[in-house]
Structure to design on (421 residues):
């Protein structure tokens, strides 16, 4: 049987490849932007939104609303969808069906059709066929992946957690710990109960399911770095870009948005967004992400924690640490309390003692044991005292000598300097 060879329709030129880093950097900066939306941004966003609805063959939304944060976006959008559903479709259906109609079925055309027309069709036609080889080997890794890795945890995850967790807990418990968000979810829940009465739970469930209306933002910049490279740098002349250009404009001029047949809401960008050297959400002195309405998120090296652990570490106690069921959060709590202090205060048992030091250990449910060796500095402090040092070692260490040797990358048999007492 004969074989057929698919001829590449397009290949990147060297001058295009030379701009990978620059292009990725520009979209990373867009995703990490903390610039507040201004009137120009809002005007361009309104035009882009109308263009996306037109691309989906839908009439423009009756209302385009700008809100200060994803937190407000989730509740305002969910409540608006609930009101819209009750007004147009009545009260006979069950809550589950009503919620789906309000936040999924009724918005599917706006969300999926606009996405398909404005982005996925452009991806398939503009980059998979016309630029298949160059895309897979070059721009996907150099632009989309670079942007995605740099911004996913710090932006998309921040938005997702700020809204999903808040609405989930509000729906389940109808209460909220105000220390998580300074604007206070409990006030919103109370307001919903006052205004909606028996319908309040339905409203909250619609807010919980507002993810069905979520569509794009500057935080999805990895996608746009990938698509826009061919549009602006390689300058491919493709009809799909007539639809995609509206999505790209929206990505450049605003934060997360939700789309509904009757309305579209757009969140502002955060005013603070901090990450560590691995691009994980991180700040040990305050929120890693905060919006201008005061809603905020806290994290230590990618681990989401309650605000009080960062803002008021003096409230940490051994009992509180031991009760924490999330392993990663508990590790952060121990680190901020002080590992050595935690061992001493929690009554850790002495494993072994010799001329090298004292080995202590504590079993931690759901995690590996905390084992540390205490050694005395051979050089006195200015006061004449000899300072104790605590070094964390693997739980496999059985003697203080073995623990000290491990810190130097050796074994007890190879680590034999003169013992100082």
């Amino acid at each position: 049987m004969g074989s057929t060879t698919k001829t590449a329709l397009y290949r990147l030129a060297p001058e295009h490849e030379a701009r990978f880093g620059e292009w990725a950097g520009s979209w990373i900066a867009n995703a990490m932007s903390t610039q507040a939306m201004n009137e120009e941004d809002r005007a361009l966003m309104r035009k882009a939104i109308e263009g996306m609805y037109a691309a989906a063959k839908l009439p423009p939304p009756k209302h385009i609303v700008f809100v200060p944060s994803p937190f407000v976006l989730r509740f305002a959008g969910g409540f608006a969808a609930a009101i819209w559903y009750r007004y147009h479709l009545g009260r006979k259906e069950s809550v589950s069906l009503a919620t789906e109609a309000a936040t999924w079925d009724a918005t599917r055309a706006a969300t999926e059709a606009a996405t398909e027309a404005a982005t996925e069709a452009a991806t398939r036609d503009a980059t998979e066929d016309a630029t298949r080889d160059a895309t897979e080997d070059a721009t996907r890794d150099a632009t989309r992946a670079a942007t995605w890795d740099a911004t996913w945890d710090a932006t998309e995850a921040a938005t997702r957690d700020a809204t999903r967790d808040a609405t989930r807990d509000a729906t389940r418990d109808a209460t909220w710990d105000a220390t998580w968000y300074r604007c206070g979810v409990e006030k919103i829940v109370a307001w919903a109960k006052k205004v909606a009465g028996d319908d309040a739970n339905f409203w909250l469930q619609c807010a919980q399911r507002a993810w069905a209306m979520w569509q794009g933002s500057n935080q999805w910049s990895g996608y746009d770095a990938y698509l826009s490279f061919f549009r602006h740098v390689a300058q491919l002349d493709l009809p799909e870009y007539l639809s995609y250009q509206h999505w790209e404009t929206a990505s450049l001029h605003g934060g997360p948005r939700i789309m509904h047949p009757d309305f579209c809401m757009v969140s502002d960008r955060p005013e603070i967004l901090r990450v560590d050297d691995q691009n994980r959400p991180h700040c040990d002195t305050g929120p890693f992400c905060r919006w201008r309405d005061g809603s905020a998120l806290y994290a230590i090296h990618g681990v989401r924690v309650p605000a009080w652990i960062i803002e008021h570490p003096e409230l940490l106690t051994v009992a509180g640490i031991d009760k924490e069921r999330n392993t990663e959060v508990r590790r952060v709590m121990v680190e901020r309390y002080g590992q050595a202090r935690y061992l001493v205060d929690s009554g850790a048992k002495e494993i072994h003692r010799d001329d090298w030091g004292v080995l202590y250990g504590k079993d931690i449910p759901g995690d590996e044991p905390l084992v540390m060796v205490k050694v005395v500095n051979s050089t006195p402090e200015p006061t004449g005292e000899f300072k104790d040092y605590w070094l964390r070692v693997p739980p496999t260490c059985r003697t203080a000598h073995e623990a000290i040797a491990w810190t130097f990358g050796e074994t007890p048999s190879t680590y034999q300097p003169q013992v100082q007492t």
The first helix runs from residue 14 to 17. Confidence is low (pLDDT under 50) at residues 93-141, 171-183. Residues 6 and 129 are 10 Å apart (CA to CA).
